[in-house]
Amino acid sequence: MDPAGLVARIRSWAAELGFAEAGISDTDLSEAAAGLREYLDAGHHGSMAWLEERERLRTRPEELHPGTLRVISLRMDYAPVDIGRAWDVLHDGTRGYISRYALGRDYHKLVRKRLQKLADRIVGEIGPFGYRVFCDSAPIMEKPLAQKAGLGWRGKHTLTLSKTAGSYFFLGEIFTDLPLPVDAPASNHCGSCTRCIDLCPTGAIVGPYRLDARRCISYLTIEHKGAIDEALRPLMGNRIFGCDDCQLVCPFNKYARVSMEADFAPRHGLDGLKLVELFGWDEATYLDKTEGMSIRRAGYESWLRNIAIALGNAACSQEVTAALRARADDPSPVVREHVAWALARQREKGADSG
Q1: Catalytic (active site) residue 77
Q2: Domain boundary among 118, 146, 176
Q3: What residue numbers does the annotated binding site for cob(II)alamin cover?
Q4: Residue 163 within any structural domain of the chain
Q5: Annotated binding-site residue numbers for tRNA
Q6: pLDDT tens digits for range 108-144
């Protein structure tokens, strides 16, 4: 086997499968492990206990998949053609904002299937070898691995940033026992820019490269279950699943690559539907409209909770009040609590306008 020649073919096959970039790294994550421990000690992971429970495996790829010598990291772009329209939705309080990555098919299955096809191509070239494919499906520090593989650096918002492609992309990995030559790590180009820190709606980016998930709208609307801190609710605006503000304002995203992947195209008009319409969905409709999408991860109760907050933040109107009153007696105590809060907000706004 010619390792360098094989890497060149891997990059070519990856491009044929829809990956925008591929890089190779070793498995040493000692530096990233120290940062993870600091993050956990600060409690910035919130209720995501699995980050601590599997901390050792997360920082030791060779233990997660025994025999691993190298990690092939790959990037797949997802930005829609009209990514700039995101600002229009965010500035329209009557519509629900969903993070752009979640508008199409759930990326986990798609990326994993492409990774498996790439592994199969390698097998066809050199015969059986030890490997395992991942896409946000196991305790992996994919961002540090991507940086070591040259795909991008960890920006001040903590997302992976590419100097030539921005940050609208998914990452996937192939852990392998092949002794491939490694790529040079990506260097940091954030410089003195603090746009992501300054714009974060809830102040979740508590410092350069430091994110407190407990204040992050993505965490609150997707991972967090139960009631959301009342002090944070007005800051969430109309964001009902995830948040892209730190990416939308990042100057490097002027280089973002538009995705030609049909499965990542927005489904069911969810890139800007009216909040009152979304709030009227029963659970069967929610499950039907979000089939095969990452939005399912929140669950129906959190979906209604998030929309209730957005309606509370919307301008006062009879339509909004009627939609909220229709769920005032919702079976879920979590939904009822947030509906009551939203109705109180609407009354306050009505009194102010009077």
Answers
A1: no
A2: 176
A3: 58, 136, 171, 218, 243-244
A4: yes
A5: 225
A6: 999 999 999 999 999 999 999 999 999 987 899 999 9
